[in-house]
C-alpha cells in the first residue's frame, strides 16, 4: 500500500516546492528529487519478489458508485518503467539543481510541475485500471504542455507546447474511446484481468485496438505523429532529458508492452505495430543524420529508437518481449545521458551547434567519455546494454525463430532493423564527433546538408580554433556519468535486467528455446548481423559528406507536420466561416437558427421514425377522432382564426383585440375540458393584459413598423409552420403513447385530508404552497420592475446611448 | 390510461405555436411580445392534451363521473400567471425602447457582428 502514498507525496511536494524555491533557489531541485528517489528505492526493494512473479498491488476506492477504483499493480514491466521514471528522474532532478540558475524566471513553477509530472508518470506505469491510466496519461500531457512551453518569452515554445498537447491529447481521446470499448468487450476495466482473459471474440475488439494504438503511437511519437517530438525540443534540456528520453514518450511503448501479451495475436495489432514501428525507426534515423543541432539530432534519434521499442514491445513473441525490456532500459539510460551531455555542452561551451564545436573533448574529457559510453550503447557496441538489447531484437526477428511471425514478415522486419541499426550507428558516431571531435575547417564552417541550414558562416579561417569550455561542476557531471555507467554495468552484468525481462516475457510461449539477455550467445546470426551493421555504419560515417549530398538530393516527403498545420488551419477556417454566417447580430436570425436546429435534429428523427414505422400513428377507436364535442370545433376555429388574423394585422389596436379574442377562446376550451379555475384565471389575466396593452399602445404609433426583417417572409412562414407542426405532432404522439396512470389519482383522498374540495386549489395552496409563494414573488418582482421602468421616465426622459449605437449600425449597414 | 387527444385540439395547438413563432421572428418588439403571449397559450393548451377526453371539473362532492386530472391544471394555472408577469415586464421594456429610439424595433447587435468579422490568428498556419 506504499505506492499510493508515494504518489500523494509527489503531489504534496509539488505544492511545497514554490516557497522552497524562493528560499533555496535551484537547490530546491534536490528536495524535488526526494519523492522519485523514494519511489525508485521502494521499487528496488520490492524487485526480487516482482521478478519472481509476485506483483505488488494496491487499491484505493475512487468512484465507488461507478465501480471505479484506483488499482495499482507493479509487475516486471512496471518495475522496469518505475526504475526509469523515478530512478532516472531523481538523477535528472539533481542535475537540474546545477543546470538552472537560481534567478531563472519561473523556476518555482518549473520545479513544481516537474515533480507533478514525475508523479503522473509513476501513475501511468503503475495503474491497473484503464480509467486511472487515462487520467494519469492526460496529466502527463498537461504537465508536459506546461514544461515545454516553460519559456513564455519564446513564441516557438508556446507553439511547440500546443502542438504536442493537441497531438497527444487529441489522440488520447481516441484512446479513451478505445479503452471504453475494450472494457465493454471484456467486461472489466482492470488491465491485468483484460490481458489475462482478452475478449478475442468480440467484434468491438479490432476497433478498440486501433483506437488504443492511435493514442499510444501519438504519445510515443510514432510516424505520422512524430513531428511533435523534435518541436518540443524548445523545452529546457533537463526537461527534454526526462520527458523525451526516459519518461513520457515511453508511455506509448509502455501501453503497447502492457497490452501485447493479451492482444498481440488479435488483428490488426501486429500488422499496425510492426508497420508503424518499422517506418518510424527508418524515418527517425534518416532525419537524425540531417541535423546540425545536437539536441535535434538526439530528438530525431529518439523518434527512431521509439519506433524500435514499439515494434519490439508489440511484436508479441517471447524473444521480442525480452528484447523490449533490454532495449527499454538501455534507451532510458543512454538517451537521457545524451540529453544531459547536450545540456552540459550547451551550458559550458555556449552552443550546441555541430558547426560551431571543434575538439571539445580536450576541455570536457569526462563529459566526452560519458557521451562516448552512451553513444556506443545507442550504436549497439558491446559490452553495453544497448548491444544486448539489439542482439535480442535481431534474434527475435530471425525468420523461423518465432512461429507467431510469418517468415516473410520477420525477414522484412529484420532487414528494416538492420537498415535502421546502420543509420543508428551513423548518427551515434555523428553525435559524438559533432559534439567533441576534431573537425576539418570545411566541416564546421559549411555543413553541406541542404535543406537544414546550409552555408551559415563563411569559411574565412583556414585553421579552426578549438572550442573552449569552462569545466563543469562535479554535481553537474555526476548525472550523465552515473547514467552512462548504468548502461555499462547492466551491459556487463545483465543478470538483473534479464530477471525482469524473463518475468515480463513469461506469458509468451518460448517454444522450448528460452532467450536470455546476455553478452555472448555464441557465433550466431545476430552477431554476424551486428558486425555488418558496425561495418556499414562506420562506412556511412566515413563517407558522411557523400551521404549528406545524397540526402540533399532525395525528394522531401510531405512532412506529417504539414498535416498538422493543415488540420489546424482548416479548423480555424471552418470555425470562422461558421461564425461569420451565424453571428450576424440579428435576433430574428438567431431565433430562426434555433428553430431550424430543432427541426433538423429531433424533427428529422421523428419523420424517419414515422416513416420506418418505429413510432406508430394512433388510429381507430380512442386514438383517432376529430373532436370530443362539436363545441370544441367551434372554439378551436375561433382560436385558429383570431390567432392567424392577429399576425396578419399591421395595426396595433385590431391586433390587440384579435389576441384577446384568442385568449377568450382558450378560456372556452378550458371550460370544455373541465378546468373552470383555469378559465376564470385566464379571463381575468386576459382582461388585465388587454387593459395594460391599451395603456401602452395608446402612446405608440398606430401601426407596427414594416421594416424588412432581413430575410424573406415566406421562409419565416415555412419555418414557423414547420416548427408548430413538429411540436403538435410530437405532443399528439406522446400523449397517445402514454401508459402510466396519472399520479394525481391519489390526490382526491389527500385533498379530503387537507380539507379542500377543489383539487386544483388544494394543490396550489397546500401541496405546492412554496411554489405558489415563489410565483407571487415573481409577480411582485415584475411589478416593481415595470413600475421602475415606467416611472423612471417621469424624472428624466433622456437615455441617449442606444441612439448612438443605432447610427453606427446604419452607417455599417450602408457600407456593406 | 390511453387515448390520444382529439385532432382539433392538436391542430389548435399547432396553429398557436406557429403563430407564436412567426410573431417572435419579427423585428417589432411589440409583435414579439404578442408572440410570447401566443406561445404561453400554446403551452397551456399543450398541458391540457395530457388529460382524458371530456371530463368533469376536479371538484369533490359534485356530480358523479370521471374527474379531470388536476395536476396539469395546477401547472397551467401557474404558467398563466407567470406569463402575465413576463408579458407585462416585456411591455414595459418595449415601451422604454420606444421612448429612447422612437420605434420599438430590435436592432442588430454590433458586438456580435464584430465577433463575426474576427480573423484567423497569424500563427495558426
The total strand number of chain A stands at 2
The proportion of residues in beta strands of chain B is under 5%
Top-tier CATH class of chain B: Mainly Alpha
Record field, number of beta strands of chain B: 0
Radius of gyration of chain A: 37 Å
* Tally of separate helices of chain A: 33
**Overall body shape of chain A:** elongated
Which sheet architecture does the biggest sheet of chain B show? none
Count interface residues per chain for the largest interface.
Answer: A-B, 131 and 103 residues
Describe this structure in words.
The complex is a heterodimer of chains A (816) and B (125). By secondary structure, chain A is mainly α. Among the domains of chain A are: 1-248, no CATH class; 261-454 and 464-542, no CATH class. Chain A is built from 33 helices and 2 strands. Chain A has helices at 2-24, 28-32, 34-51, 76-99, 107-126, 130-148, 155-186, 191-196, 205-219, 228-231, 237-246, 250-263, 269-288, 294-315, 318-349, 365-379, 385-396, 407-436, 441-445, 474-492, 495-505, 525-542, 544-553, 560-582, 587-612, 630-648, 652-672, 676-697, 713-736, 747-754, 759-767, 769-795, 801-815, and strands at 56-63, 68-74. Chain A has a two-stranded antiparallel sheet. In chain A, strand 1 and strand 2 (68-74) form a beta hairpin. In chain A, helix 11 packs antiparallel against helix 15 (318-349) and helix 16 packs antiparallel against helix 18 (407-436). The longest helix of chain A is centred in the first third of the chain and has 32 residues, at 155-186. Chain A is elongated. Chain B is mainly alpha-helical. Chain B has one domain: Helix Hairpins (Orthogonal Bundle), CATH 1.10.287. In chain B, 62% of the residues lie in helices and 0% in strands. The longest helix of chain B is centred in the last third of the chain and has 32 residues, at 70-101. Chain B is elongated. The model of chain B has no long low-confidence stretch (mean pLDDT 82). Classes of the chains: A mainly alpha (816), B mainly alpha (125). The interface between A and B is large, with 131 and 103 residues.
Amino acid at each position: 500500500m506504499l505506492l499510493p502514498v508515494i504518489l500523494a507525496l509527489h503531489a504534496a511536494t509539488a505544492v511545497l516546492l514554490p516557497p522552497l524555491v524562493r528560499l533555496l533557489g535551484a537547490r530546491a531541485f534536490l528536495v524535488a528529487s526526494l519523492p522519485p528517489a523514494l519511489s525508485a528505492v521502494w521499487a528496488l526493494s520490492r524487485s526480487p519478489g516482482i521478478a519472481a512473479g509476485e506483483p505488488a498491488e494496491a487499491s484505493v476506492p475512487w468512484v465507488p458508485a461507478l465501480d471505479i477504483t484506483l488499482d495499482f499493480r507493479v509487475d516486471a514491466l512496471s518495475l522496469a518503467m518505475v526504475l526509469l521514471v523515478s530512478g532516472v528522474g531523481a538523477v535528472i532532478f539533481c542535475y537540474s539543481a546545477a543546470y538552472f540558475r537560481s534567478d531563472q524566471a519561473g523556476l518555482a513553477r518549473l520545479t513544481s510541475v516537474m515533480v507533478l509530472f514525475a508523479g503522473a508518470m509513476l501513475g501511468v506505469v503503475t495503474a491497473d485500471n484503464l480509467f486511472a491510466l487515462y487520467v494519469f496519461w492526460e496529466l502527463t500531457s498537461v504537465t508536459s504542455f506546461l514544461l515545454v512551453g516553460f519559456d513564455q518569452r519564446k513564441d516557438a515554445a508556446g507553439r511547440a507546447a500546443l502542438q504536442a498537447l493537441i497531438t497527444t491529447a487529441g489522440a488520447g481521446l481516441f484512446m479513451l474511446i478505445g479503452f471504453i470499448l475494450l472494457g465493454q468487450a471484456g467486461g472489466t476495466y482492470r488491465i491485468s484481468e483484460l490481458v489475462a482473459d482478452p475478449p478475442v471474440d468480440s467484434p468491438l475488439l479490432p476497433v478498440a485496438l486501433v483506437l488504443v494504438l492511435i493514442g499510444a503511437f501519438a504519445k510515443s511519437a510514432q510516424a505520422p505523429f512524430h513531428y511533435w517530438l523534435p518541436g518540443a525540443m524548445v523545452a529546457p534540456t533537463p526537461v527534454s532529458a526526462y520527458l523525451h528520453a526516459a519518461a513520457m514518450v515511453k508511455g506509448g511503448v509502455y501501453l503497447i508492452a502492457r497490452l501485447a501479451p493479451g492482444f498481440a495475436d488479435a488483428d490488426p495489432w501486429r500488422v499496425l505495430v510492426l508497420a508503424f514501428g518499422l517506418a518510424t525507426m527508418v524515418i527517425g534515423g534518416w532525419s537524425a543524420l540531417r541535423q546540425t543541432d545536437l539536441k535535434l539530432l538526439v530528438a530525431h534519434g529518439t523518434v527512431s529508437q521509439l519506433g524500435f521499442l514499439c515494434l519490439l514491445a508489440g511484436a508479441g513473441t517471447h524473444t521480442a518481449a525480452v528484447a523490449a525490456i533490454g532495449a527499454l532500459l538501455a534507451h532510458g539510460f543512454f538517451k537521457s545521458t545524451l540529453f544531459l551531455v547536450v545540456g552540459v555542452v550547451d551550458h559550458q561551451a555556449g552552443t550546441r551547434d555541430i558547426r560551431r564545436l571543434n575538439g571539445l573533448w580536450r576541455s570536457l574529457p569526462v563529459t566526452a567519455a560519458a557521451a562516448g559510453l552512451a553513444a556506443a550503447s545507442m550504436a549497439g557496441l558491446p559490452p553495453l546494454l544497448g548491444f544486448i538489447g539489439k542482439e535480442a531484437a535481431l534474434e527475435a526477428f530471425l525468420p523461423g525463430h518465432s512461429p507467431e511471425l510469418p517468415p516473410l514478415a520477420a525477414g522484412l522486419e529484420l532487414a528494416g532493423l538492420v537498415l535502421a541499426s546502420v543509420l543508428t550507428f551513423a548518427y551515434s558516431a555523428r553525435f559524438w564527433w559533432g559534439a567533441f571531435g576534431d573537425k576539418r575547417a570545411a566541416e564546421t564552417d559549411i555543413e553541406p546538408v541542404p535543406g537544414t541550414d546550409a552555408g551559415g558562416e563563411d569559411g574565412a579561417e583556414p585553421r579552426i580554433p578549438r572550442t573552449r569550455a569552462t569545466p563543469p561542476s562535479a554535481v553537474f557531471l555526476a548525472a550523465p556519468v552515473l547514467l552512462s555507467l548504468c548502461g555499462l554495468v547492466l551491459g556487463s552484468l545483465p543478470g538483473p535486467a534479464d530477471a525482469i525481462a524473463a518475468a515480463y516475457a513469461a506469458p509468451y510461449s518460448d517454444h522450448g528455446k528460452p532467450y536470455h539477455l546476455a553478452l555472448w550467445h555464441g557465433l550466431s546470426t545476430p552477431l554476424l548481423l551486428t558486425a555488418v551493421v558496425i561495418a556499414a555504419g562506420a562506412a556511412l560515417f566515413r563517407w558522411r559528406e557523400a551521404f549528406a549530398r545524397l540526402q540533399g538530393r532525395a525528394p522531401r516527403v510531405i512532412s506529417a507536420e504539414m498535416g498538422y498545420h493543415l488540420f489546424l488551419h482548416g479548423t480555424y477556417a471552418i470555425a470562422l466561416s461558421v461564425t461569420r454566417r451565424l453571428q450576424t447580430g440579428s435576433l430574428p436570425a438567431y431565433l430562426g437558427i434555433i428553430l431550424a436546429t430543432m427541426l433538423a435534429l429531433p424533427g428529422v428523427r421523428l419523420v424517419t421514425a414515422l416513416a420506418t414505422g418505429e413510432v406508430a400513428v394512433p388510429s381507430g377507436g380512442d386514438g383517432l377522432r376529430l373532436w370530443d364535442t362539436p363545441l370544441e370545433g367551434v372554439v378551436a376555429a375561433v382560436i385558429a382564426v383570431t390567432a392567424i388574423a392577429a399576425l396578419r394585422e399591421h395595426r396595433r389596436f385590431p391586433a390587440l383585440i384579435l389576441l384577446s379574442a384568442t385568449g377568450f377562446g382558450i378560456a372556452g376550451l378550458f371550460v370544455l375540458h373541465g378546468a373552470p379555475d383555469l378559465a376564470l384565471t385566464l379571463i381575468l389575466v386576459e382582461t388585465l393584459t388587454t387593459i395594460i396593452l391599451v395603456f401602452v399602445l395608446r402612446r405608440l404609433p398606430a401601426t407596427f413598423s414594416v421594416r424588412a426583417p432581413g430575410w424573406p417572409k415566406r421562409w419565416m412562414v415555412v419555418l414557423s409552420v414547420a416548427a408548430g407542426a413538429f411540436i403538435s405532432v410530437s405532443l399528439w404522439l406522446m400523449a397517445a403513447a402514454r401508459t402510466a396512470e396519472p399520479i394525481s389519482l391519489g390526490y382526491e383522498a389527500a385533498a379530503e385530508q387537507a380539507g379542500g374540495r377543489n383539487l386544483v386549489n388544494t394543490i396550489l395552496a397546500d401541496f405546492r404552497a412554496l411554489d405558489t409563494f415563489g410565483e407571487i414573488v415573481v409577480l411582485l418582482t415584475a411589478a416593481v420592475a415595470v413600475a421602475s421602468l415606467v416611472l423612471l421616465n417621469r424624472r428624466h426622459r433622456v437615455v441617449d446611448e442606444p441612439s448612438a449605437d443605432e447610427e453606427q449600425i446604419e452607417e455599417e449597414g450602408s457600407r456593406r | 390510461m390511453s387515448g390520444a387527444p382529439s385532432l382539433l385540439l392538436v391542430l389548435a395547438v399547432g396553429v398557436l405555436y406557429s403563430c407564436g413563432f412567426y410573431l417572435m421572428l419579427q423585428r417589432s418588439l411589440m409583435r414579439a411580445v404578442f408572440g410570447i403571449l401566443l406561445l404561453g397559450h400554446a403551452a397551456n393548451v399543450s398541458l391540457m392534451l395530457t388529460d382524458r377526453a371530456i371530463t368533469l371539473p376536479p371538484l369533490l362532492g359534485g356530480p358523479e363521473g370521471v374527474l379531470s386530472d388536476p395536476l396539469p391544471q395546477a401547472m397551467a394555472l401557474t404558467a398563466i400567471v407567470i406569463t402575465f408577469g413576463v408579458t407585462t415586464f416585456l411591455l414595459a421594456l418595449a415601451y422604454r425602447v420606444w421612448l429612447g429610439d422612437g420605434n420599438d424595433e430590435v436592432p442588430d447587435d454590433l458586438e456580435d457582428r464584430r465577433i463575426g468579422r474576427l480573423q484567423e490568428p497569424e500563427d495558426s498556419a
